[in-house]
Amino acid sequence: MRRPAWAGRNYSLLTAAAIVTSLGANGSLIAAAFAVLDAGGDAGDVGLVAAARTLPLVVFLLVGGAVADRFPRHRVMVAANTLNFLSQGAFAVLVLTGDPRLWQMMLLTALGGTGQAFFSPAAEGMLLSSVSGEQAGRAFAVFRMAMQGAALGGAALGGALVAAVGPGWVLAVDAAAFAVAGTLRSFLDVSHIPPRAPGEGMLADLREGWREFVGRPWLWGIVVQFSLANAVVGAADAVYGPLVARDSLGGPGPWGLALAAFGAGTVAGALLMTRWKPRRLLFVGTLCVFPLALPSAALAVPVPVGALCAVMFVAGTTVEVFGVSWMTAQHLRECSLLVRLTALDFAWPVSAARAHLPVRVPTMCGSY
After folding, report:
1. 53/116 Cα distance (integer angstroms)
2. Is residue 337 over pLDDT 70?
3. Could you tell me the end-to-end alpha-carbon distance of the chain, in angstroms, rounded to an integer?
4. Where are the chain's structural domains?
5. pLDDT tens for each residue of 9-47
6. 8 A C-beta contact, residue 21 and residue 313
7. Which CATH number is 9-190+201-356 given?
8. 3-class secondary structure, 283
9. Which pTM does this prediction carry?
10. CA dihedral 59, 222, 227, 143 (to 10 degrees)
C-alpha cells in the first residue's frame, strides 16, 4: 500500500514508537494499581503512587518545554525513554522478586513521571513539525487512531495478563516497550528544524512562553477547562476504577475491558475526524469534553460491566474528537514558541490532576 504524501519518515517513526509505548503503557496503568493492592495497599496507597507520578509532571513540565526548545528534541525524547525504561524495569523486578515497599513504588513511579515531563513537550513539538499543509488534521487523526488502537489492545491484554500472570510481568513488558520506542526515536531526523538562536537563558524562555500563553484567551481558556475536567474525573482512572473493579466488578479483567472500551471509543473518534472537519473546530472540541463525566458517574453507582463499557466508549469517542481538534489548532502556532506553549498546555491540566492524591474519606464511589 502506498504511503500518503504527508506520512514522511519522521511521522512514520513517531507513529510506530507511539504504538509500541501505548501497548505497554495502558497495561502498566492497570498493573501498577494492582501491584499496590497485591502488596497489601489500600486506596490511599494507590493514590500516593499515582500522585508520585503526577507531582514531578507538575514540577518539571515547564522545564521540559524549555529544555526541548534548546536541545535536539529527538535526543530529549530518547533520554526520557531511557529513564522510563530503567524505572519501569526496576519496578517490575521489585514486584516479581519480592514484597515491594510503598516508598520504593512511589520513588520509581516518580522517576517515570519525571521522564514523561521532559518527553511530552519534545514529542508534541516533534509531531507537529513532522507534517504540514492542509492534510495536517488528517495526519494527526491517523496518528491518534493508531496510538489509541494500540492503547485499546494494551488495556484489554494488560487486564487479562494481570489476572493471569500478575502485574510484574506486565510492568516488564512496558519497560521493554520504552526500550524499543527509544530506539525508534533515535532515528528521527531533525535537520529540517532550524537551530535556535542564542537567547537570554532558560528563565527568560519560560517568561516569554508564559506571556504568549496568557495573551491568547482561546488557549488558556481551553486549558483551564481541561484542567477542571482532569481534577474531577482523573482520579477515577487512577484510583477509584481499580478499587471498584476489585470490589464490585470482578477484578482487573473487567477493568481492563472497560479501559479497552474507552480505547475503542478513541479509535472511533479518530476515524471520525479523518473524514469530518468541523467549521468551528475548537467549539466542537470543547463541547466534547463534557461526556468525560460519564465514567465517574457509572463507577459511583456502580453499574454493570456492560453499561460501564458503553459509557467508556462514548467518553473515549468524544475526548478523541477534542484531541484531534486541539492538535490541529496547535499546528497553527508559531514554531519558535511551540514546545514552550505545549509545556504549559500539559502543565495546567496535570496540576489539576492532583485529585489522585489519597482519599480516605467517604466519596461518591464509596468509602475509599
Report:
1. 9
2. no
3. 52
4. 9-190+201-356
5. 888 899 999 999 988 887 888 888 889 888 888 878 887
6. no
7. 1.20.1250.20
8. helix
9. 0.71
10. -80
According to DSSP H, which parts of the chain are helical? 9-38, 43-70, 73-97, 102-128, 136-165, 167-185, 202-214, 217-235, 241-244, 252-275, 281-287, 293-300, 305-330, 338-352
Question: Would you say 170 and 28 are in contact if contact means Cβ atoms under 8 Å apart?
Answer: yes
Spell out a b/e string for 35-59, using b for 16 or more CB atoms within 10 Å of the CB, else e: bbbbbebebbbbbbbbbbbbbbbbb
Rounded Cα gap, residues 53 and 58, in angstroms: 9
CA distance 210 to 124: 18
Closest alpha carbon to 34 in 239, 226, 296, 328:
239
The per-residue pLDDT for range 82-108, each reduced to its tens digit, is 999 999 999 999 999 988 899 999 999
All three cell numbers of 132, joined, read 504540514
The C-alpha atoms of residue 88 and residue 25 are separated, in whole angstroms, by 10
Q: Which three cell numbers stand for residue 61?
A: 513540565
What are the two backbone dihedrals, phi and then psi, of residue 366, each rounded to the nearest 5 degrees? 120, -175
Distances (CA, A) of 172 to 34, 84, 92, 105, 177: 14, 11, 5, 14, 9
CA angle 222/136/72 to nearest 5° reads: 85
